[in-house]
Design brief:
With 398 residues, the protein is α/β, with parallel strands linked by helices. It is built from 15 helices and nine strands. A six-stranded parallel beta sheet has the order 1-9-6-4-2-3, with helices on both faces. A three-stranded mixed beta sheet has the order 5-8-7. It is globular. It binds zinc ion. Zinc ion binds at residues 204, 207-208, 273, 287, 291.
């Protein structure tokens, strides 16, 4: 980026109030009792899924909270891509126990369910009432978020993504009050992720870093988080794929995911996420995989915008994927190629055809992608025709 544009960016006004205290460290889970006490917790709802219970994490958190003098009620029925029904069940359990604090433990789905429950429990109504930003009028309960994947970065965002029970369309329900008060990041917890979860959530974190790097609402501040998230994830992902027990790289992924989530909070997401949601809704493609298949094509599409190409080139050169002597467009292409090779490394199919998508499905998918909330934030305007071309590029076998 030329020095004069850096200077202009440095003079842009900003108003930044971090909403979430971030506590990071190996075995920092031991501090959960002390941290919950700082939120004045007495009766805690622990929101998690059965896999996390089976891994022993839920029992450990419950024991640590009880040792700190709290009553703990566990809701362990969180599903992947949680629906309005899942949230309603969680609310029933929360009401029955008259809770004062929520602890979300698990992947993005546990965080989303915990936040969704918080909306309904404190503000009443249904999830659809909170679609958009800032529609909750009453205070919400304190939320302590403990991710076990690295990850969605949901612990550093104020959005709950809840799917409609009937249509499976995801609703983004955001409110500053829904953000976790504390995100407790313990890399040791992420060692239990199955290989496929490591791959899909890691690629999602990388995608969050790259989408937020170029979106229209990006700010000089969100760019700090996007760049650092990318630096950590591009180095960490190949290492955790090759060596699942690599605690240092697990830490990079966990922290990178949290910073990428922080970037999303300030700069939203772009076309790769708009393209991914219909693939998840209609073909059951796991979110991170769907995003990962579409992202290289979105990078190429966005790189036709000179500002986006320079942003991609900057991180591509910093990660030594491209040389500073290369043109921004060539450096962006190196980045797209690296993203494709990471899918190969993760053992994830790169093409939509592998996921059962047929050419005649594309017009309907493109139409839905164009109606996704995140589409509007992409640096280049994306029409339904562009979305169809992006899907077409991802369709054939490599
Ligand atoms: Zn994502």
């Amino acid at each position: 980026m030329p020095p004069e544009s850096n200077l202009a960016a440095a003079l842009a006004p900003l108003d930044y109030q971090p909403r979430t205290r971030v506590v990071f460290g190996v075995n920092s889970l031991e501090r959960v009792g002390e941290l919950a006490t700082s939120l004045s917790a007495k009766r805690v709802l622990l929101v998690t899924d059965r896999g996390i219970v089976a891994a022993g994490h839920a029992g450990r958190v419950q024991a640590l909270l009880e040792a700190a003098g709290m009553e703990v009620t566990c809701f362990e029925q969180v599903q992947e891509n949680p629906t309005t029904r899942c949230v309603e069940r969680c609310v029933e359990v929360a009401r029955g126990a008259a809770i004062d604090t929520i602890v979300g433990l698990g992947g993005g789905s546990s965080m989303d369910t915990a936040k969704g429950c918080n909306f309904i429990l404190t503000n009443g109504g249904q999830m659809k009432d909170y679609r958009g930003i800032g529609r909750a009028t009453r205070p919400m309960l304190p939320l302590l978020a403990i991710p076990t994947t690295g990850g969605t970065g949901s612990e550093c965002q104020s959005f709950a993504l809840i799917a409609d029970e009937q249509t499976h369309q995801k609703m983004a329900c955001g409110d500053p009050k829904a953000a976790a008060r504390i995100a407790l990041l313990d890399p040791a917890l992420t060692l239990s992720q199955p290989a496929r979860v490591t791959a899909c959530t890691g690629i999602d974190a990388l995608a969050h870093a790259l989408e937020t790097l170029v979106t229209k609402p990006r700010t000089p501040l969100s760019l700090i988080f996007s760049r650092e998230a990318f630096r950590l994830a591009i180095a960490g992902l190949p290492r955790v794929l090759a060596s699942p027990a690599d605690l240092e790289a697990r830490g990079w992924m966990l922290l990178g995911a949290a910073w990428a989530g922080t970037a999303i909070e300030n700069s939203m997401l772009g076309a790769a996420h708009a393209l991914a949601n219909p693939l998840t809704a209609h073909f059951g493609v796991v979110h991170g995989h769907a995003v990962g298949m579409m992202l290289p094509h979105v990078v190429r599409f966005n790189a036709r915008d000179p500002v986006a190409a320079r942003a991609y080139a900057e991180v591509s050169c910093a990660a030594q994927l491209a040389l500073p002597s290369e043109s921004p467009e060539a450096a962006a292409e190196r980045l797209a190629e690296r993203l494709e090779s990471l899918l190969d490394l993760a053992g994830l199919p790169r093409t939509l055809e592998h996921c059962g998508v047929k050419p005649n499905d594309l017009p309907r998918l493109a139409d839905e992608a164009a109606r996704q909330w995140t589409a509007q934030f992409n640096p280049r305007t994306v029409t339904a025709n562009d979305f169809q071309q992006l899907y077409t590029a991802a369709l054939p076998p490599a």
